[in-house]
Amino acid sequence: MMNIQRTIDTGSGPATAAGKPVSSPIADDKEMLRAARDLTKDISEARAGIYWTDMLGSAVVGYGSLAAAILLENTALAVFMGIVAALSLYRALLFIHEISHLHKNALPGFRTTWNVLVGMVMLTPSYMYEGVHTLHHARTRYGTAEDPEYLPLALMKPWSLPAFVLIALLAPPALLIRFGILVPLGAIFPPIRKLVWERASALAINPDFRRRPPEGDLKRRVFWQEALGMVWSWALIGSIFVLGWKPLLVALAVFSLTAVLNQLRTLVAHLWENEGEPMTVTAQYLDSVNVPPPGFLAEVWAPVGLRYHALHHLLPSMPYHSLPEAHRRLAKHLGTGSTFDGANHGGMMALVWRIARSTMRVR
To answer: Which residues pair with 288 in a beta bridge?
Structure first.
């Protein structure tokens, strides 16, 4: 498994029957795990002022820029405002990741407000991540066939990478069809409801993932979020008879750009070099990616703490605003050349090239 196993091959060591060198899984770096726990205890609380200001500000800028993109007659300026809208709404949307990790008693009202202002408007309510993303962090699921958010992209064919990114362009119209057509059909025909829930109710990239029925409080939230999503999708479709096609088409174009940005970020969030075997926490960390400062661009394409994705896998409940400080402390304590340093990478293009080169070796 490429970087996920260390190969022991001295020329005189044991070998398999096929004559290949013996490989051993990466053992957990206990010093790193202890440091991650001990050095960050005092910064583990979510700060309401940061969450609310960041999320609301991103949404306001995003929707204001979207309105400008729709209303402006100057094409170049409209395109520029559309890009600003896509980037701002992308940041606002990524709070769904934080919501999936927040303790139920933390930040009262934040999840509901986010759903009303962002999740429902973009037809990506929080239930699409809640109860799904945590499976990606499960100790024995990461990188296996039971992980909804993992594909061994580095071990797939070269054409799989552009296909993986470009398919995201279809996400907004697909969500419109899901909520506007398939949800009401599912209320009438149970087999459709079952199919839509299992295959199209989670932000997953593993095509073999099947979502289990919702339980407890999530079941109630799913009902209301799907109902509101259906009504909103009908309103969007109906808007063409009142406002014409332009507003909806511009909004879909902006949301498609947002979806592609997220897919590009997903592409470089991991090295995707695991072939399905369970991994140690340290192996999971090294298969994940940090893009720390000084570069600024990573904060644009991986906002809300996601430039520290590997560190997030060590500290999944750490609030996003504390990840930069946590990274500084651990880097200083563990030093250059440590296991911790092994998950730090230079930027998106270098990561894309690394994964692309790996696919070119696949036969």
So the answer is: 270
What is the per-residue pLDDT across 276-291, written as a single tens digit (0 to 9) for each? 899 999 999 999 999 9
Rounded-to-integer distance, Cα 261 and Cα 222, Å: 26
- The token duo for 291 is 């893009």
Of 338, 137, 75, whose CA–CA distance to 327 is shortest? Answer: 338
Measured CA to CA, the distance from residue 363 to residue 345 in angstroms comes to: 27
HEC assignment per residue over the chain: CHHHEEEECCCCCCECCCCCEEEEECCCCHHHHHHHHHCCHHHCCCCHHHHHHHHHHHHHHHHHHHHHHHHCCCHHHHHHHHHHHHHHHHHHHCHHHHHHHCCCCCCCCHHHHHHHHHHCCCCCCHHHCCCCHHHHCCCCCCCCCCCCCCCCHHHCCCCHHHHHHHHHHHHHHHHHHHHHHHHHHHHHCHHHHHHHHHHHCCCCCCCCCCCCCCCHHHHHHHHHHHHHHHHHHHHHHHCHHHHCCHHHHHHHHHHHHHHHHHHHHHHCCECCCCCCCCCCHHHHHHCECECCCCCCCHHHHCCCCCCEHHHHHHCCCCCHHHHHHHHHHHHHHHCCCCCHHHHECCCHHHHHHHHHHHHHCCC
pLDDT tens for 305-342 read: 999 999 999 999 999 999 999 999 999 999 999 999 99
Tens-digit pLDDT profile for residues 181-232: 999 999 999 999 999 999 999 999 999 999 999 988 899 999 999 999 999 9
Lookup result for tokens 């979510």: 46
> What is the share, in percent, of the chain residues with pLDDT greater than 90?
88
- Is this prediction's pTM over 0.85? yes
Give the residue extent of every domain in the chain: 48-137+156-259
Phi, psi of 219 (to 5 degrees): -60, -40
Q: Confirm if 72 and 99 have CB atoms less than 8 A apart.
A: no
pLDDT of amino acid 284: 96
